Amino acid sequence: MQIDLEDAQGELSALQVKASRMADAIDSVSQKIRHNANLKPSPNDFELEFELRNRVSPQSQADLSYDGVIRIIEELKAARQKVVNLERQRNQLAQPEGWSVNLT
Length: 104
Fold this sequence. Notes:
Elements: H1 2-38, H2 48-54, H3 58-63, H4 66-94
Helix pairs in contact: 1-4
């Protein structure tokens, strides 16, 4: 039981790291959008270097999959529920109900 709980906690931790990275990528894209929305028309818009600086990175593009965002939220919920259920089971096993010892 303890091993299952530790595995579930490890899976949850890995998902939390993945979700945080996705959120960071979304924040980065949000900043790029705001920055680009505030740019004035300029000859810089024709320069490759300027375009590359203002482009969303391929990794951020991959992290922005709507389906991926929905999936990670669902996976996080399932992982949290699994940890809670395993903790409940462990606690129930540690405190058996219905057993009493009469010492009289």
